């Protein structure tokens, strides 16, 4: 289920995200993710926003498929990068064994908690055997709306581990930290990488 108020924010926030179209250099999490990928890997950038990760993936010789539920973000990504971004919600992911990797960096946190198991199961189906999954989520308890009206599901590290392993993936790395987001608050988060073994 797509949260209409969250999508409305992203649809109307292209100007706010202008700075996010600047590619800069890939951060450590993206570099670590790319180091696990085979040459020419096909990578689903799930909830791509302005598609900065896809730009770095393309530059490194991979084949990104950037998708987002926000038409505004898709337009921004394509106008800035000619990256082939397309409109797709979590519910519409139906690929089977199509990707070498999935990058879901702080996108699935906008999904309701009850929907996370089926979204993660869809991601597992979309991965080829041996495929790599990256997920970033904010940590905490319950859910909330931030100061700019975006919906969040907060998770603990054990909860996320259970969700990911429950989808049939094997956790291979985790990192906890905190950072400042678009709403201006400094929030705790977890980064997790997993692999589809069979």
Describe this structure in words.
The protein has one domain: Vaccinia Virus protein VP39 (Rossmann fold), CATH 3.40.50.150. Helix content is 28%, strand content 30%. It contains 6 helices and 9 strands. Strand 8 (170-180) and strand 9 form a beta hairpin. The radius of gyration is 15 Å and the shape is globular. The model has no long low-confidence stretch (mean pLDDT 89).
Keyword list:
198 residues, alpha/beta, Rossmann fold, 7-stranded mixed beta sheet, two-stranded antiparallel sheet, 6 helices
Number of helices: 6
How large a portion of the residues is in β-strands, by DSSP E? 25-35%
Query: Could you give the order of the helices and strands?
Result: HHEHEHEEHEEEHEE
Net shape: globular
- Radius of gyration equals 15 Å
Give the CATH level 1 class: Alpha Beta
Residue runs with pLDDT of under 50 for 5 or more positions: none
Please tell me the CATH architecture by its name: 3-Layer(aba) Sandwich
Can you count the beta strands? 9
- Average pLDDT number: 89
Strands in their spatial order, largest beta sheet? 3-2-1-4-5-9-8
Identify the CATH homologous superfamily.
Vaccinia Virus protein VP39
Q: In CATH terms, what is the fold-level topology?
A: Rossmann fold
Helix content: 25-40%
* Most strands sheet: 7 strands, mixed
| Number of discrete domains | 1
End-to-end separation: 28 Å
The class by helix and strand makeup works out as alpha/beta
